[in-house]
Design brief:
- With 84 residues, the protein is mainly beta.
- The chain has a domain of 36 residues.
- The chain contains 1 helix and 3 strands, in the order βββα.
- It has a 3-stranded antiparallel beta sheet with strand order 2-1-3, with no helix packed on it.
- A hairpin with a 5-residue loop joins strand 1 and strand 2.
- The protein is rod-shaped, with a radius of gyration of 24 Å.
């Protein structure tokens, strides 16, 4: 469940609330009953799945793709050609 950050237009209070993604945003300040708006934040920035470093556990990309990163059809013996 994500944490959303809010700010009050009346008193300037900034606060966070743990809410479901499907839950409606808050509209009332818990301190002064003024109108609040949800701030856009950068988030935590995590990556799910592979990526450029996906083959780190292998001695060559041959095991993953059937071809090395440099185009050879035989094992080249290095994790990534650009590291040579």
């Amino acid at each position: 469940m994500p944490t959303y950050e809010y700010k009050c237009k009346k008193c300037g209070l900034s606060f966070e609330r743990l809410q479901s993604i499907t839950e409606e945003p808050l509209v009332v300040c818990p301190e002064c009953d003024g109108q609040v708006y949800r701030l856009i934040s950068g988030g935590i920035g995590f990556i799910v799945g592979g990526g450029k470093n996906q083959n780190r556990g292998y001695s060559c990309s041959l095991e993953q793709t059937g071809q090395t990163c440099c185009g050879r059809e035989q094992r080249c013996g290095t994790p990534h050609c650009e590291e040579q």
